[in-house]
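Example (one chain per record):
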Amino acid sequence: GTAPEGSSKRQQLPPARQACSPAGKARPRTNVGRISKPWEEVGPESRTMRLVRSWWAPVEESVRTKRPQQLQAALREAHGTQYLKTIRAVRRSVSLQPPQRHNVEVEMAARLVSARSLLGKWQGGLQDIRAAQQSRDVQALAVALERWSFSEGDNEVAAAKADLRCWQSLSASMPAMLKEALYNRDIDQLREIMAELAKSGPATVEGSESARRLLERYDLQVRVLDSAILSRNCKDIEVAMACWEFEQNNQHVLRARQALDRRETQKHALQAALASKDGLKLREAVTTWDFERADEVFQQARTILERYSAAISEVDRLVQSPVDIPGLGSAVSAWCFSMDDPRLIPARQCLADYEASLRGALSARDGWLLQRIWLQGGCGSSLTSAKELRAEVASTLQQYSAARSAMRDAFCVAASTSGPAAITARSELAEQVSQWTFVDTDPLLDAARVLLRWQENLEALRVGVLRSALDSGNVAAIRSAAQQIWQTHNECPEMRIAEDVSSSFEAALDVVGSLALGREPDHLRIAAKRHSAFGAAAQQIYREVEGVECHLLLEIKVIVKPPRVLHAVLEMVMHVLAGIHPSIKDPPRDTEWRSCQRMLTNVAGFMTNLEAVPDWVAAGHRSGVTRALALRERLQEEFGSLWNEDDIRMQSRCAAQLFQYLEAVFFHFEVVNSDNLKEQIGNSSRPGSTQPPTKRSSHILTKSQTVPAGMLSEAPEPSLSELRAPLGMLTDTLPALQHARSHIGGCVSAAVAWVVVGGDASELNQCVQRARQLAASARAAATIAGSVLSVLRKPWQPFRQASQSSLVGSSASSDSGHIIVKLLSGDVVAKVQIQAATSAAELKAEIQRLEGTRIGQQRLLHGRLPLRDDATLQQQGIGDSSILTLVRLCAPLSQRLEIVSLAVRAGRVGEVEGLSKKSALEPARYLVFGPGADGVVAATRRDNSTLEQAMSETLATILEELGASGGDEQGADNQTRLAPWAVQLPFFPDVVHLNAKTARSMRIPQLNISLAQRCMAAVDSPPPLIAEFITALATFYAAFVPQRAVAAITAAAAEDAEAALRETERAFWLASSLTAMQEPPRCHDIEAVAQVARIAADQVQHLAVHGVPLPSVHVEYVRKAVDDAGMLMITSPPALDPGDRIRWAEATVAIQLRPMPYLQSALAGIVNALDIQQLEAVLSPRKAPAAEQARLLAALLWLVNPDCRCDATWSSARQFILDDTGAFLKRMSDFQLLRDSNPARISRAEDLLHEIWGWIVQGCSGSVALGRLCGWAALIIALKPVLEVASRLLPVHRELKRGLARITKAAPNQLQVVKAKAWTAALFLLDASGDAWWWLSLIRSAASKDPPWTDGEDGGVGVSPMAHARTDETAEDEGFDREMSQFKSEDLNVGTEEGSNMGDADEAMTNADPPLEGAEEEDIADQEVASVPLAEGAAGADGAGNEASSVDMTATFAGAAAESGTASEGGPITSEIADVSEDAMVVAALAADRPASTADS
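Predicted structure:
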């Protein structure tokens, strides 16, 4: 069982070393199967020992047979449980002695150790065998098997011995086979032999290494060849085949040759495709090419294929909708491939269709479509093969472009022109329409026809309104209607009739002005012309002031050495502003440059002073402008041709602007001083400005800036002939009013004048009846138009969700049931519980309540049959659970617009674009954006969001205008109350971007609409949303907007008619209560004069309170009464007695003064009717609402404000009044005719009222307060001819009454002396002016009669021949004298001791003096001084001229009185005469406007 000697060393060597060891064969081993001593030696035979032998027997058998695997299994079995059981049995054995048991146990362990050691050695031997077997080393395997000599019963050992035998056999036979195969280069045989050797042969066989190298070289060449074939590289394949060392019929070589042949075939296909330029073949050849990509032919083919693919892609893109005809034509023209390519057929078909469409549009002469197609085709660029067609289309389009341009220009002018030019523009547009030679469906032609049609319709409507107004005869309605058409339809017969009516009415208004202000109509017209001329010149000055740049003025202040021209211009400006600018005196002290710069210190004030020049010049301050003109002449000589605006601007822009301003000032100066105007106006120049304050000026005259001396005294005093002459023009008023009697009812002033001058009031009643008929017809027309408009604007309620309702009463009957109402789409809109007796009409009403569809828009179907409204549901076969179909009919405009708006806001515009192959949104783009830059094709570059936003904004604005946002329905009455915003029907003159702003303007975008409709007609089956959008907007602009214009015109006509009716009724009411002022009743005494004055004054006040100033006719009425009573006095002169004469003179003067208290009361009554709040409301605007209002306030300030020196501007007058409105009204109320009147101021106020009389007679802009102010001022102006004489008569009348009082108190023995003295004292006043009979000047008939007496040498003792002598007269004169003799002096209260009853009247007129009490009132000089109104030289030129003679007479009379007193030594007569001399001196001094101290000296 032990290993042989030296085995341990050999086990340490690897098997190969062991096999080749020098020891040669291993020595045979002895006792290999024996491990230890026999069991008999260990212990006696026993059961236990038998158990031990049986435990060890498998191991011993394996060792004996030399089977390693069996030994390993036996040892595995002997260990573990079996070993423990055996040891246990040994240890418990009773048959063995303890020493024996110990020995047995030791032996068992030793045997196991020895067996394991042996197994390790055997396993090493097995490893040697395996190593040799794995390395296929025949010698080593033989050595290992021989050395260990294991049993062949072991499988592994048996396999190793079998391999050894096989290897030995192959080692003997294989070398010859390898040698033969190598020689023959038989790769298959070599691979087979080598495979067999590799599978079951030894590792080393003779010739195997050469065979392996040969196979490796073959495999390498095969790989190279296969790689070249796989890479499809021709050169690599050829190189690989050139290096091939084996047989040529090898499959790899054949494959390479096939690849080369296939390459040549594909190359020939490429070359053929390139030569034929067949794109499909080229694509196929390029696609099937399998070889190198760098091949030149392939690269060329691929480049051409790319071009072909790009051309095909471009053609496919261009063919897609919308077809790009220009690009398609260019692509086809540039096509360089086969023309038979099937991909080119759609493109050629599109071009053919395009050419056919061109020919169709050309034959139809549809210019719009032709130009649209032409532009879409790139202006004929695609017609390369149809040159004749291209030339024909170009020629036709040139004609269309010219016609379209002319039509469009005419349309733009007609749509944007108003006034007289509109007639020409409309006729030119109509001419273009008539001359149109292209198709009738052209959008531009359609737009022109719509414009002409609506303008003609509106003009016909306006002419109808004018015709109705002419039938009524109401001038206000006629003018309002004519104003709408006078510029555009002034050739119609109605317009000529309206002009005639207006002319006659203007003549009547001129007559009314004469009746109000007492001046000739020509004078009033000249005043208006003067007002216009001065206003235009001043307005030019204001415009030039606005053109002056303030920053340039600021730059002037820092210039040290200015240009000469700048200094010269500023010198002229300084002269013009002399007296206006606070720092410039008149004339300026110097005009040096530093002074000019000081003038510009305050630029804002300087600009204000520039604006104040027109009023300053018109007020009479003309010296500054005169000096500036003289300086201009010198500068023109100095500068020569360089004195013009252009050359001045080259040196200084500011100087050029001021130069232009100065030229405007000089022109205004020439207008003010124009001889032509003076000839037209006459000698009526008055102080103050005649320029209306068109701009507000903050300039107010200070105390140092007063009117030049004597300016207020320039007004001429009325001559005695003027005072004594009656107003002859009043005799011609009735014919002028008679001619316009059927038209004056609408003007209060004219109607009042008609009645006042004696016209029949029944004429006014007829005017009222005609005005009522006009108002009724106008209101009816407005109601109808408003009703039609209300249908279009009628709001709609959105459809509600399906709901359930019941038409069954509280107790449901057995025959009730439910029905379902659906739409055509199948949506359920309502579920209604009904009874059998329910009618279809009741069901419709319930559906309207539930769902919102109006009854008139419902159609209910049961199956296919409609329901009858008058039958019950049971009669029509409708029962429980029946289904009815609701058909909604013709929705109103607001509903259609709302539905479209909801769809647009929901984003369905983008869905339309996505679903449409063609440009489905093009009609909408036409309507919203109009065409693009070419003018024909719609603007398509805008995205859908922009279009959607514009559509949404437009629809929302239109719905807002329609009133569809909610609220109750507006009735027809509300619709007629439209503001006059749409009495015109405005069109956009060109295409416009439709958005909220343009939609709110309500102007009709007719070009957009016509283009959109034309485009929609050209689109096949347009999308419903776009079609509904265009149809709804077209309906809105074609129905609502024109109907709104019709409703507005009729509503405005109705409002005008109703306003005319109100004015006519007011005029009739006011005129019916008046008294005719044509001829007063015969006045026999002073009381009759008082009665007439009272009637006239009350009527003047009544009219003025109602805003109708007609004072002159009433003043004339009173003067006629005075003439009548005065004539009786003149025809009954007194005797030679001084007492009779003084009584007669006092009565005569009293008659002339008797109307003054009543007129004064009327003046105060007008002021009392003024309301402070109304006056403040009129003055609330900071800028004058009208120039006439400023002129009226300027006239009032001339009368009320004694400090006024020029026309007040609106701002200054407003400030003056609003500072204390109550105080201003108090001034007006306290105004005394005989105390506060100033002829010059009244004359200036009269000029101002003359200029604005046209505005006054038409109602003062409807202001009651302004009308009353006009009445107050007009009354003072009407009394101007008599106020001065009346103011001079007042002290005369007092002196006469004082003389009568002295006569009454005189003793009988002194009566004659007192009478003589009283009469002598009266003569000082009666003869003070140099005209002996001036105190009879207010009795105009006195001028045609002989004086009552002739003066004698003794101061009036002579008697007129009228007193005692009678001449031989005709029978008529005798009858008149006989009639006059019936009236005695007692009738006029002449000859009584008390005198006339004018004592209270004097007190009322002066409002200052207490009643006279006879002769006891001696010292009244101070009171009379306060009563005389001649404070500013009011006596006039005549009084001033006779001043010296009056003083001389007073001194002479005083000297005579002194001598008489000395001679009589202070007797009674002397004292009386002295008293008379003192009183006469005081009164004469008052009459001559001199203080008493001056008369005494």
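Caption: The first helix runs from residue 7 to 12.
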